[in-house]
Amino acid sequence: MAKKTKAPPPPPSGDAAPLDLVAVRTQIDGIDRQIQALIAERAQFARQVGKAKGKLAAAVDYYRPEREAMVLRGVVDRNDGPLADDVLVRLFREIMSACLAQQEPLKIGYLGPEGTFSQQAVQKHFGHSAKGLPLASVEEVFDEVAAGHADFGVVPVENSGQGTIQSTLDLFLTSPLKICGEVELRVHQYLLSRTGHIEDIERVYSHALSLAQCRAWLRQHVPDAEKLPVASNAEAARRARNADDAAAIAGENAAHVYGLKIVAGPIEDRPDNTTRFLVIGRSMFPPSGNDRTSLMVFVRNQPGALFRVLEPLSRRGVSMNRIESRPAHTGLWQYAFFIDVGGHVTEAPLSEALADLADFAENVTVLGSYPVAVP
Ligand SMILES: O=C(O)C(=O)C[C@]1(C(=O)O)C=C[C@@H](O)C=C1
């Protein structure tokens, strides 16, 4: 696709000439008026699309993740700068979020309390017009979505440095829910405390995964402090708020939410630290043109079983991103394979590979086909 071929527009004034601030601001005011009028017009059209979908039961019925992914990819393809792709994507997500909320805001369950990275993932994917529903555990997120109290849930599944979050994967073994999307979030960790002084710190609270992401930093800077895992980073911040000798590792957000000072940060050992979240819902959506499918495959415990699962995928030219085996809880030494592949379940070659796979596997569950994360 042709991209980034146009030269960026020239700046409003040369380096040497003094900037006519009043004139430039007049230009900006004019552009803002146009942007505002266009956003209003867009919102009217989105409302029309909503009406065309008929009198539906709830906000969730108006939501079209595949269409949103296409819109955002278009934004990235058209971007000639000077703003970065992820900045423009954020702005357009907010516009769509607001357009959708005209019907009724989506309710999104996440591992709370407020200030967690899960909340950041919700806001990144659904925008600020969606209503976040902080819940006590990832299991509760599954339960509330299944019960229809939340439209979707956002749950962490994988960290670039720590690998799979197996407790999340295991919930799919018994859940009827579907994966409707994925969110990748750069995770920056901060050491937060009430006093802001590192020498006061005798205990550091955080989620076990966050403690692991900062292990080397902690060893170097607070070697004698006790490291205490708790249910979430926000819970850690809540505890740090109550004692001068305690600190929390959490996102920068949590400092504002819980009134803590930043002692140090970012302190994650790997600068590319990224967590992948899944969006879970009650139904599947059509293809977006660049999709991923998550499968859960049960096979009899026999020689060559894994090879026979992967062979049809390879033969049909389906790309595989990830495979993970977990105890299936169906019998001793029985395993389920969690496999992420490229493509949508309704489209070839994946649909053909799955037909082949069904001949051999005891059970193949399509956990979901969903748009590949947009930055
Ligand atoms: O295209 C649609 O189906 C719409 O409802 C419009 C729109 C948008 O603002 O672009 C809004 C919400 C949907 O999730 C997808 C797209």
How would you summarize what this structure contains?
The chain is α/β, with parallel strands linked by helices. It has four domains: 23-101, Chorismate mutase (Chorismate Mutase Domain, subunit A, Up-down Bundle); 107-187 and 274-281, 3-Layer(aba) Sandwich (D-Maltodextrin-Binding Protein, domain 2), CATH 3.40.190.10; 191-264, D-Maltodextrin-Binding Protein, domain 2; 291-371, Alpha-Beta Plaits, CATH 3.30.70. It is built from twelve helices and 15 strands.
Bound molecules: prephenic acid
Query: What is the distance, rounded to the nearest whole angstrom, between the alpha carbons of the first and last residues?
Result: 18 Å
State the name of the first-level CATH class of the largest domain. Answer: Alpha Beta
Low-confidence stretches: 1-8
Query: Radius of gyration from the CA trace?
Result: 24 Å
Portion of residues in beta strands equals: 15-25%
- The percent range for helix content is 25-40%
Helix-strand sequence: HHHEHEHEEHEEEHHEHEHEEEHEEHE
What's the story with the biggest beta sheet?
Answer: 6 strands, mixed
CATH topology of the largest domain: D-Maltodextrin-Binding Protein, domain 2
- Sheet/helix structural class: alpha/beta
Number of helices: 12
Oligomer: single chain
CATH architecture of the largest domain: 3-Layer(aba) Sandwich
